[in-house]
Structures are given as structure tokens and as C-alpha cells.
Amino acid sequence: MSDTDSIDVDSWRAELESKRAEKDEFFADHPQSPIPPEDRDDFDGLEYFDPDSDYRVTATATVHDDPEVVLVDTTAGREMRYLRTATLEFELDRDDEDLADGTFELAAYQQESPNEQPLFVPFRDKTTGQQTYDGGRYMELAPEDELADGDEIVVDFNLAYTPFCAYSETFDCPLPPEENWLEVAIPAGERHE
Residues annotated as region Disordered (predicted)? Predict the structure, then answer.
């Protein structure tokens, strides 16, 4: 279900635009930018879908007490180990009759380490390889408290971002596992030319 009833949409949009401007500045100027130094002069900002609060949804979490290890392929042909710590179930209910509605699930992962980390949610959708990077996109979710079964968490696809490996081959990025391939278009977040 959409989470727009509980937020001030104008404030949400302003904050989103501010985060996007900050990220563009990082990509243009920062020494750790994924844009190769020789290409930074020509960089004039990332491409985004227009902010759409229909893609800010509330998901219900199923927490895996004994998380299963998932081997995730990377763009460099390696495998990375993640733990499937939660499954997030959410509904899409969009105004556009050309876009499919329904209930969907995404697995949320964490790396095998004892420190607190956000939930890592790599995914593909029907925009992948067309309007978005062909290696998928990522979201990171940071619940305020430890997630328990049945907890609700906001999943804002407007914050979905393209991994650094889309900009430079020096990066090795995890590819979304098949369980996170959504059979629906999510025209929100970062686009790719």
C-alpha cells in the first residue's frame, strides 16, 4: 500500500530533490566519484524518474531468524556471500491503468558481519536494461529498530539507485538474485541513459 497518507508529499518531494542535488555534486566533484576523472567535466547530473509518491510503499517484513546464505553473482564474475535476513511484501496500487498493480515481494540482505548494517535490497524490474541500468538497481533500508516479524517498513523506490559499476569498470557490483526480479515496471528512482 502507498505510504503517502502519513507524509507531507511536498516536504517529501523537496527532501528527495535535495538528496538528488547533493548526489549530483558528489558525482561531479568528489575524488571518490564513480565517474572517471576524464569524464567529470562533461557530467551534468544523473537522470531520474520524476518523483512519484505511489512508489513510496509500506512493506510488511517476514524476518528470518536463521538467515540463509545467498551467493550473489557480481559484475566481475565473482560471488559474494549475503544473508537473506528478511522478506518484504508490499502492494502497488497505481493510478496509471497501463501499469500492473498487485502484491510483490523482495528479499532483503545483509553481509556476514557483526556490525549494524542497513538492509540491502538489489532488484530488477521491467525497466531494467531499457530505462534503467541492465545490472539492476539498489536500495538500502535502515529500520529505526531491529526488525521483527510483521513489522512495517517504508520502501521508497524513488531512492533506488544505480550501482557504481554502471559508471566505471573498476567497480565490482552484486547483481540482483533472481528472487528479486520483479515482474512489474518501477519507473521511480535513478534512470540510465
Answer: 20-44
Tens digit of each residue's pLDDT (9 = 90 or more) over 47-65: 999 999 999 999 999 999 8
Residue 67 corresponds to which cell in the numbers above?
538467515
The whole domain housing 96 covers 4-180
C-alpha pair distances (Å), 122 with each of 7, 65, 114, 126, 179: 25, 21, 21, 14, 10
Asked whether residue 44 is domain-assigned, the answer is yes
In a domain, residue 54? The reply is: yes
**What are residue 59's DSSP bridge partners?**
153
pLDDT in tens, 15-39: 999 999 999 999 999 999 999 999 9
Distance of CA 115 to the CA centre of its chain: 21
* 62 contacts: CB under 8 Å, gap ≥ 6: 86, 87, 88, 89, 149, 150
Backbone angles phi, psi at 164, to 5 degrees: -60, -30
Total domain count for the chain? 1
Q: Residue 50 burial by CB count (10 A; 0-12/13-18/19+): exposed, middle or buried? A: exposed
80 backbone dihedrals φ, ψ, rounded to 5°: -115, 145
| Any domain includes 191 | no
